[in-house]
């Protein structure tokens, strides 16, 4: 029987969340990450532990069928590789930064400048689009130090909290792209393994929908039920159960996790009491 081959980052920022998502979709893995390859015990799946930066080539060559990878790396190295699913972790930007004291009004200010980066293709595309020419210094890490040591006038690198820029006396002046971890698919995946991928994708979607939703329970006086039901944007329509105390009901609904704080005051104003908000592990619609 065919097995789906998935690449995950061996170590680094994506590793922990990648392993967690595999666990959340019920995959249990035979051996730990000291091995470069492992098998799932309960699904036809082989896991390859690789460097993030090497993964696009493995996908292109069909050595692996799918991978959990930073979208920024796919954009840099894997132009014909499709994204099957955005995974909602490792959110970051790829940005241009210059020394805090430098004058910067527009992208034209990069004309003729030296830019240090680990993302040359991304930078060249950005410069071409803006009809600006600059000289690239390609370095693999600690890019933010380049302006301080006189190696570059500007940098293009990953920005998340902005603290690395701040500590190195730099300011973000352009956001070239936004990225998060994605499930990427090899153009060479077989029809058989595509079916396995669909099963994995269905499970991932259930986990992600669960993570983005909350189960809300509350008590409401019966004469306010209609108002409260109208406030709660449920999956279908909320469940309403009578309480032991006459004239009161319990209302259960699933709502988007971000919507809860928006409707809480309205719920209270309409007489809702004993409001409970619970996490959802998985959600199948
Ligand atoms: N500060 C950050 N905040 C959020 N996400 C980040 C941050 N830095 C990197 N990422 C994301 O995590 C991915 C992996 O970053 P990490 O630094 O672990 O690996 P790497 O050194 O780029 O890759 P490799 O596995 O090839 O050594 C990046 O490609 C990016 O998508
Ligand atoms: O905006 P911030 O929250 O400060 O994050 C940005 C920093 O994080 C990444 O580096 P990382 O820590 O992964 O080190 P690396 O360069 O060794 O990969 C990235 O290359 C930036 O330097
Ligand atoms: Mg890094």
From TrEMBL:
Domain ATP phosphoribosyltransferase catalytic: 51-205
Keywords in alphabetical order: Amino-acid biosynthesis, ATP-binding, Cytoplasm, Glycosyltransferase, Histidine biosynthesis, Magnesium, Metal-binding, Nucleotide-binding, Transferase
Catalytic activity: 1-(5-phospho-beta-D-ribosyl)-ATP + diphosphate = 5-phospho-alpha-D-ribose 1-diphosphate + ATP
Pathway given in the UniProt record: Amino-acid biosynthesis; L-histidine biosynthesis; L-histidine from 5-phospho-alpha-D-ribose 1-diphosphate: step 1/9
Organism superkingdom: Bacteria
Coiled-coil segments: none
Subcellular location as annotated: Cytoplasm
Isomerase among keywords: no
Gene Ontology terms, MF aspect: ATP binding; ATP phosphoribosyltransferase activity; magnesium ion binding
Family: Belongs to the ATP phosphoribosyltransferase family. Long subfamily.
Protein name: ATP phosphoribosyltransferase
Organism: Olleya aquimaris
Lineage per the UniProt record: Bacteria, Pseudomonadati, Bacteroidota, Flavobacteriia, Flavobacteriales
Gene, per the UniProt record: hisG
């Amino acid at each position: 029987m065919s097995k789906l081959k998935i690449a995950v980052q061996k170590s680094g920022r994506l590793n922990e969340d990648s392993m967690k998502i595999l666990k959340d979709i019920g995959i249990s893995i035979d051996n730990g990450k000291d091995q470069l390859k492992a098998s799932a015990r309960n699904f036809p799946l082989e896991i390859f532990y690789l460097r993030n930066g090497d993964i696009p080539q493995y996908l292109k060559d069909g050595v692996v069928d799918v991978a959990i990878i930073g979208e920024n790396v796919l954009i840099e190295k894997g132009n014909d590789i499709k994204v099957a699913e955005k995974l909602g972790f490792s959110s970051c930007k790829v940005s241009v930064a210059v020394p805090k004291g430098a004058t910067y009004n527009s992208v034209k200010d990069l004309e003729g400048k030296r830019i240090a980066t680990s993302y040359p293709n991304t930078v060249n595309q950005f410069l071409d689009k803006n009809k600006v020419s600059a000289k690239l210094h390609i370095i693999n890490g600690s890019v933010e130090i380049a302006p301080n040591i006189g190696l570059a006038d500007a940098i293009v690198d990953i920005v998340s909290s902005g603290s690395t820029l701040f500590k190195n006396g730099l300011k973000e002046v352009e956001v070239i792209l936004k990225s998060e971890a994605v499930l990427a698919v090899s153009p060479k995946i077989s029809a058989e393994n595509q079916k396995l991928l669909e099963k994995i994708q269905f499970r991932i979607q259930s986990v992600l929908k669960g993570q983005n939703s909350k189960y809300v329970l509350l008590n409401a006086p019966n004469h306010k039920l209609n108002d409260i039901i109208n406030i709660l944007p449920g999956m279908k329509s909320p469940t309403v159960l009578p309480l032991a105390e006459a004239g009161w009901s319990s209302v259960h609904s699933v709502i988007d996790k971000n919507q809860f704080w928006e409707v809480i005051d309205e719920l209270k104003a309409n007489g809702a009491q004993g409001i409970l908000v619970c996490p959802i592990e998985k959600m199948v619609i």
